[in-house]
Amino acid sequence: MICGCLSQMYGKKTLDELPEADAVFVRRYSRDRTYLESIERSRRTAVISKRPAYLYDDRSPRVTLTPRHYAYVKVSEGCDNSCSYCVISRLRGRLRSRTMGSVLKEVMKISASGALKEICITGQDTTVFGKDNYGRPMLADLVDKMAALKMGVEWIRILYTHPAHYTDKLIDVVRDREKVCKYLDIPIQHISDRLLKNMNRRTRKSDIIALSKNCASASRVLPSGHPYDGRRAVSLGITKCPSRSTYRA
Ligand code: SF4
């Protein structure tokens, strides 16, 4: 049985390409018995949602696959950014943020055992968390409240941010809250204005450099091979990016 991005992308075609597959379905239906029973009865079924709508919450059962001392908490699904090289906006649909209450309840639940020391906040673009539900980005508020919870967690790490969506409040919370790791995960993607425009990143070299001045330590993701990303642009990406960084290419 195939479930996930591949099934959302290729739908019924997946069954043609993979004769060994019995069923293809998307996560929205993964806990729905009716669909599971119909899949059981008539083998080789594809149940695909045209508009991805799945969003887990604090009541969803979760199997933690990470070691006991850290866990990922996903605060949103989908992405509205439509970067030109990325299929996520099409596959996962529009931004759908969880409520702050749901995220905080989940954090309390998974930290109850006392073994959990680090929470990693994820989402396709965590910096816009809450914009759809609350009318403005709420990541800073969420992290602030999370850091104030009485729990054994010692570190809160923010992953998958977008350089165009940082707010002063978020930088302040990272700086001031002891539990929030002084580390930012910023997929800047490039430092050439031409390439950034081509990638539809809605940010410029000057914005990235200004943001970097606020960071003591950051991980910056630099993919290569984007159309028109020639040898010169790749070398510009590596040499002109702000220092004090760890690069992942
Ligand atoms: S922000 Fe990330 S997930 Fe969203 S479209 Fe761009 S690369 Fe894809």
Bound molecules: iron/sulfur cluster
CATH domain fold name of the largest domain: pyruvate-formate lyase- activating enzyme
User: Which sheet architecture does the biggest sheet show?
Assistant: 3 strands, parallel
CATH architecture level-2 label of the largest domain:
Alpha-Beta Horseshoe
* Count of discrete domains: 2
Query: What helical percentage do the residues reach?
Result: 25-40%
Mean pLDDT equals 85
Arrangement of strands in the largest sheet: 1-2-3
Number of helices: 11
Low-confidence spans: none
- What structural class results from the helix and strand content? alpha/beta
What Rg is obtained from the alpha carbons, in whole angstroms?
Answer: 20 Å
Question: How far is the N terminus from the C terminus?
Answer: 32 Å
Description:
The protein is an alpha/beta fold and 249 residues long. It folds into 2 domains: 1-51, no CATH class; 52-248, pyruvate-formate lyase- activating enzyme (Alpha-Beta Horseshoe), CATH 3.80.30.20. 33% of the residues lie in helices and 15% in strands. The protein contains 11 helices and 11 strands. A 3-stranded parallel beta sheet has the order 1-2-3. The protein has a 3-stranded parallel beta sheet with strand order 4-7-8, with helices on one face. The protein has a 3-stranded parallel beta sheet with strand order 9-10-11, with no helix packed on it. The longest helix is centred in the middle third of the chain and has 12 residues, at 100-111. It starts with a strand and ends with a strand. The model has no long low-confidence stretch (mean pLDDT 85). It binds iron/sulfur cluster. Iron/sulfur cluster (SF4) binds at residues 79, 81-83, 86, 88-89, 124-125, 162.
